[in-house]
Design brief:
Layout (H helix, E strand, L loop, with lengths): L10 E4 L7 H6 L5 E5 L4 H5 L1 H11 L3 E5 L8 H14 L3 E6 L1 H15 L4 H5 L11 E5 L11 E6 L4 E6 L7 E4 L9 H19 L7 H23 L4 H15 L12 H13 L3 H16 L4 H12 L8 H18 L6 H4 L5 H13 L13 H10 L2
Parallel strand pairs: 1-8, 2-3, 2-4, 4-5, 5-8
Antiparallel strand pairs: 6-7
Helix pairs in contact: 4-5, 7-8, 7-9, 7-11, 8-9, 8-12, 10-11, 10-15, 11-13, 12-13, 15-16
Length: about 400
C-alpha cells in the first residue's frame, strides 16, 4: 500500500423525501440566492422542481432556474451560466440530476470566482483551488459526481471531452433519494450501473501490492452493484436495489476504493473520445470498450484479473491456469452487460468509426497524458488504436 490522502467533506442526506430539506440545508449555510441547474423535462413532469422551489421559498431564498444540460454537458451552457450568476448575484449553485448537471454546475462554480477562460482550465493550461459553493440533488445513480472531486465537460470546438479534478469541487451537500430514480429509462439506469462498476474497476486493476483491505471493499461494492442492477432491470421500483445503486455510485467515485494504490482510468480516457465524437452514453461507451481493453492488457497481471473473476463474478479459480480464469472473468463481465441491456462492442453501441476517426480519437486520447495513458499498462497511440479496432 502506498501513501495517500483521502478527503471527502460532502454531507450526504440519504433517503425518501429528502429533497424537501434543500431549503433548510442552504439556509443553514447563510446563502441567499441560488442558481438551480438541470437538464431535460423530468423535474417538471415529476414535480421535483416544484418541491425544490417550495423548500427554498420556505426559507426566503431566491432562485433562478437554468435548464438545458445535455449528456456530455457543453462548455457553451457553462459560460452562459457563469454570466447569469454574475448578473443576478448568485451565491450558491444547486445541481439537480446526474453527472451531467452536477459536472456542469461545478464548471459554472469555477467560472464564477476565477478570471481565466474555462477552456484553459479543462484543457490543463491553468489550475485553481477556488470554486463557488455548490450542492446537489441526485436523480440518477451513476457518475458519483455528487461526492467526487471531478468535473467532465465537452468543449464544442473539436468536440473534446475533458476533465478537471480538484477537492475544492466536492459539493457541500448531496441529497440522495432513491425514489427519484424510479422512472429512469432502463437504458439510462443500466448505463449508470455500468459506470459505477467501472469507477471501481479503474481503481481495482492496479499493480500496487498489499492492498487487500481496499480490494475486499471494492469487491463487495462490485458484487452489490452487479446484483442490484439485475434486480432493477426487472423491478424498476425496488427501493432497496435502487438505494444500493445510488449509494454505491458515490462510494465508487469519492476516492475511497482508490486509496493506497495507483489507479488506471485508461478505459475512461478511451471512452471519453467516443463520447466527444459520437455523443454516446458514458456508461454504455465504457461497456463497449472495457472487454477489449481487458483482453489487450490482462497478461500484465493475470493474477489480478483472475482474482476479479473469482471474487466479483464467482468464476471458479483454476490455480493451474490463471489465464483461463482471467478470460472467463472478462466473459462474465460481458455477459452481465448483455443481461442489463448494455453493449460490449462499438457495433452494439451503434457506431462504426472509420480508420481516420479511430486514429483521431487515439491521438486526442494520448494527448491528455503527454503521449500515453494508463498505469496498469502504459498505452501509446498505437495501443489505443488496436483497442478501438478490437472493440469494433
Amino acid at each position: 500500500m502506498i501513501n495517500f490522502e483521502f478527503y471527502n467533506p460532502t454531507k450526504v442526506i440519504f433517503g425518501k423525501d429528502t429533497e424537501s430539506q434543500v431549503g433548510k440545508e442552504i439556509n443553514s449555510r447563510g446563502y441567499k440566492k441560488v442558481l438551480i441547474h438541470f437538464g431535460g423535462t423530468y423535474l417538471y413532469e415529476t414535480g421535483v422542481l416544484d418541491r425544490v422551489h417550495k423548500s427554498l421559498e420556505e426559507y426566503n431564498i431566491q432562485y433562478i432556474d437554468l435548464g438545458g444540460v445535455v449528456p456530455n454537458p457543453h462548455m457553451s451552457l457553462v459560460k452562459e451560466g457563469v454570466q447569469l450568476c454574475k448578473k443576478e448575484g448568485v451565491d450558491f449553485i444547486l445541481a439537480i440530476g446526474g453527472g451531467s448537471p452536477i459536472d456542469s454546475a461545478k464548471a459554472i462554480a469555477y467560472g464564477l470566482v476565477n478570471d481565466f477562460d474555462l477552456v484553459d482550465l479543462y484543457m490543463g493550461r491553468v489550475t485553481t483551488d477556488k470554486i463557488a459553493p455548490i450542492g446537489c440533488i441526485s436523480t440518477i445513480a451513476a457518475t458519483g459526481s455528487e461526492t467526487s472531486n471531478s468535473s467532465v465537460i465537452t468543449i464544442e470546438e473539436g468536440m473534446l471531452k475533458r476533465s478537471y479534478n480538484h477537492d475544492c469541487s466536492r459539493p457541500r451537500f448531496a441529497i440522495m433519494n432513491p425514489e427519484l430514480t424510479y422512472t429512469l429509462p432502463a437504458y439510462q439506469t443500466s448505463s449508470g450501473a455500468a459506470d459505477i462498476m467501472m469507477h471501481t474497476m479503474e481503481r481495482y486493476f492496479t499493480n500496487t501490492e498489499h492492498v487487500e483491505l481496499i480490494d475486499r471493499m471494492a469487491q463487495g461494492l462490485l458484487v452489490s452493484v452487479r446484483e442490484a442492477a439485475l434486480k432493477v432491470v426487472k423491478e424498476p421500483t425496488n427501493y432497496d436495489a435502487r438505494a444500493d445503486l445510488m449509494w454505491a455510485g458515490s462510494l465508487s467515485h469519492n476516492g475511497l476504493t482508490g486509496t493506497g494504490r495507483v489507479s488506471d482510468f485508461a478505459s475512461h480516457k478511451i471512452e471519453h473520445e467516443l463520447g466527444g465524437m459520437f455523443d454516446v452514453a458514458h456508461g454504455a461507451g465504457l461497456c463497449a470498450i472495457w472487454g477489449s481493453w481487458a483482453r489487450y492488457v490482462y497478461k500484465t497481471n493475470v493474477a489480478r484479473f483472475a482474482q476479479f473473476a473469482n471474487k466479483v463474478f464467482d468464476v471458479p479459480m483454476n490455480l493451474y491456469n490463471l489465464e483461463e480464469t482471467a478470460l472467463k472473468g472478462i466473459e462474465a463481465w460481458e455477459d452481465w452487460c448483455h443481461k442489463i441491456g448494455m453493449p460490449t462492442s462499438m457495433t452494439e453501441l451503434g457506431i462504426n468509426p472509420t480508420a481516420a476517426q479511430i486514429e483521431e480519437m487515439a491521438e486526442k486520447c494520448v494527448a491528455t497524458g503527454d503521449g500515453h495513458i494508463g498505469f496498469f499498462r502504459t498505452l501509446y497511440k498505437e495501443d489505443v488504436i488496436r483497442i478501438y479496432n478490437m472493440a469494433q
